[in-house]
Amino acid sequence: MNNLEGLPMLQKNHDLWYKIHVLLYDLCNIATDHTSESRTLATTDELYISAPYFTPSEAALIKSTQISPPTLSELPEFEELEYDETESETVGAVPLLSDPITIEEAIKGCLQNFFEKRRASGDARPCGPHDMGPIYLAAFGIAKEELKDEKFLSRLRRSGLPILEEEAAGKKDGQVKKGGKKGSKKR
């Protein structure tokens, strides 16, 4: 499934675009904001594009969205990533392509070598602020200043992330009672 309409289609869905901003805010503020850290640690996807931020269908839509590959000028940190000589020819070329690629391909292409090193250590998730923040900002075309916008910050402080529909349904249907058993009564 490829979203060929690109970022404008994601931007039209205001709730989804807000959640993308929350993810980027968290990646850029994980070291200084305990709530950001908690949300990012609750993700199950190596790219952080999963609950608690997104439903599975939203995550699939985001990952399949077609974008122009980020350029080196959009990612000054990209040049600091370490690559072997053979990898720099292939991975380094990703941000210079002109054909549209998916958001998932753009992010993974920028971090391919980093992922390999992390997987070797047993953790496939890259750390948030330094490695993910700048790449996500470039991929989504969001300026860091947008994450400092008072309207956005006010909504984030007031509302946080909306509860995902699956979570809300799960809490209603399968509430856990004292003792950790679903719906059982003591006799």
Protein topology:
Blueprint: H1 7-12, H2 14-29, H3 34-41, H4 56-64, E1 66-67, H5 85-90, E2 101-102, H6 103-121, H7 128-140, H8 150-159, H9 165-173
Antiparallel strand pairs: 1-2
Helix pairs in contact: 2-3, 2-7, 6-7
Can I get a quick summary?
This protein has 9 helices and 2 strands. By secondary structure, the protein is an all-alpha fold.
Provide structural commentary.
- It contains nine helices and two strands.
- Helices cover 51% and strands 2% of the residues.
- The protein has 187 residues and is mainly α.
- The radius of gyration is 18 Å and the shape is globular.
- It has helices at residues 7-12, 14-29, 34-41, 56-64, 85-90, 103-121, 128-140, 150-159, 165-173; strands spanning 66-67, 101-102.
- The protein has one domain.
- The N and C termini lie far apart (51 Å).
- It has a two-stranded antiparallel sheet with strand order 1-2.
- Helix 2 packs across helix 3 and helix 6 runs antiparallel to helix 7.
